TrEMBL record:
Keywords: Coiled coil
Keyword match Secreted: no
Gene3D superfamilies (UniProt xref): 2.40.50.100, Helix hairpin bin (1.10.287.470)
Lineage: Bacteria, Pseudomonadati, Pseudomonadota, Alphaproteobacteria, Hyphomicrobiales
Coiled coil ranges: 114-162
Keyword Coiled coil: yes
SUPFAM superfamilies named among the record's database cross-references: HlyD-like secretion proteins (SSF111369)
Protein name per its UniProtKB record: Secretion protein HlyD
Source taxon at top rank: Bacteria
Length: 410
């Protein structure tokens, strides 16, 4: 309607003034309701053509959409293990800080496993003390075996010396017995040394490895026990938290609740524009937004990112071929916008629906030296008609409460 009124001022009004003051025709005489089309045919035709051209130019070079919202990501409150709720530390709705306990699961099984792991470590420590005592004992056995071996060898050496000086004075059988005894005592030394090596290896390698395994089992048991305490991963707010003591939660099928991170929905606004405007939407474009949760306020925005893919065209591989005509409606170009000024989205409720206008700016092209006068004039006209869209957005923002509260029937 606004475009039609504007265009009529440039077409129908001059045509009427020409016929009224130049041709002398008067409204109600020569110009009547029945002869309006014939008398003002040029102005009406020009008005309609100019209106269509103006609307096309405005909506193409300065795209607008009502499919915009402050989307935000929620964090599901999920334990890493299944279990029955033993304690709930927050209510239906409450703010939480990172690391704060939300609820606890029954931990009797995990506590028993942790206690078993601690007892295993204590058992290994006791075995380590006993093994160290065995090392000392084996050293004493080696010393005893060496003394016995030395005694037997000394006696064998004496009798061999006597035999060498006075052959026949010592029976050969005694010398052989002493040799067997020396060999036996040497075997005793070897056995005691082997026992010491085994005890030393047990102290230095086997028992430390068993202790490390027991400590790892204790750490695992502690981790399993910690998993029964569910804490907030980020600062935020828990909403609609209906979990109660005795409920069974499952990380795959039954979440416990929803955590909304602090600042969610206050960083950027997402808007879906028509596919025909894909060549116009660029990063850095200035935009404006009017949100339902904050009426009568125009928020200056800037486009920070334009998604290169249209969600409506995605598919999952399966056993059926994709049929293009099954797409119910064309998808939109997803655009991410951020406030032009700090705190621009303050007061806008996360998830709020908005109306967004984006404005094309050809200032750099117009300022270029190689831009012709005609091209500069056209680009100036394109930038100028953006004021019409800006005015329409302000009219929409002004009428938004009336439309929502009165005309919607609520």
């Amino acid at each position: 309607m606004f475009e039609l009124i504007l265009c009529s001022l440039l077409t129908i009004l001059p045509d009427y003034l020409f016929r009224r003051y130049v041709q002398g025709k008067r409204f109600g005489k020569e110009i009547t309701f029945y002869s309006v089309w014939y008398e003002l045919r040029w102005g009406i035709t020009g008005c309609l053509m100019l209106t269509v051209a103006l609307i096309t130019t405005i909506f193409y070079f300065h795209p607008s959409t009502t499919s915009a919202a402050l989307f935000y990501r929620t964090v599901p409150i999920l334990p890493e293990t299944s279990g029955r709720v033993a304690e709930v530390d927050i209510g239906y709705s409450a703010p939480v800080t990172k690391g704060e306990v939300i609820f606890r699961l029954d931990s009797s099984k995990q506590t028993a496993a942790l206690e078993t792991a601690k007892r295993k470590i204590a058992e290994v420590d006791a075995q380590l003390v006993a093994a160290e005592a065995d090392v000392v004992k084996s050293e004493a056995q080696i010393q005893e075996a060496r003394s016995a071996y030395q005694q037997a060898k000394d006696e064998l050496d004496v009798k061999r010396d006597l035999q060498r000086r006075n052959p026949g004075i010592v029976p050969q059988r005694d010398i052989e017995k002493l040799q067997v005894l020396v060999d036996q005592r040497q075997a005793g030394i070897d056995a005691a040394t082997a026992i010491k090596q085994s005890a030393t290896l047990r102290v230095s390698t086997l028992l430390p490895a068993e202790k490390a395994s027991a400590e790892a089992a204790q750490a695992q048991a502690q981790v399993d026990l910690d998993k029964t305490v569910i804490r907030a991963g980020v600062n935020g707010r828990v909403e609609q938290f209906f979990l109660r003591v005795g409920d069974v939660v499952n990380p795959l099928m039954r979440p416990a609740g929803v955590l909304i991170p602090e600042g969610a929905g206050q960083q950027s606004l997402q808007a879906g524009f028509g596919q025909i405007e894909a060549q116009v939407l660029k990063e850095g474009m200035v935009a404006e937004a009017a949100c339902i949760s904050k009426p009568w306020v125009i928020i200056p925005m800037v486009i920070t990112s334009v998604q290169d893919y249209i969600a409506a065209g995605q598919f999952r591989g399966g056993e059926q071929l994709v049929e293009a005509q099954n797409i119910a409606r064309p998808g939109t170009i997803l655009v991410f916008l951020e406030p032009l000024y700090k705190g621009g989205l303050d007061g806008v409720t996360a998830g709020s629906s908005c109306i967004v206008n984006a404005y094309t700016s050809n200032h750099e092209i117009i300022s270029a030296k190689d831009t012709s006068t005609g091209q500069a004039f056209v680009l100036h006209a394109i930038d100028t008609v953006g004021l019409v869209h800006a005015l329409l957005l302000r009219i929409q923002a002004l009428l938004l409460p009336i439309k929502t509260l009165v005309l919607s029937g609520h």
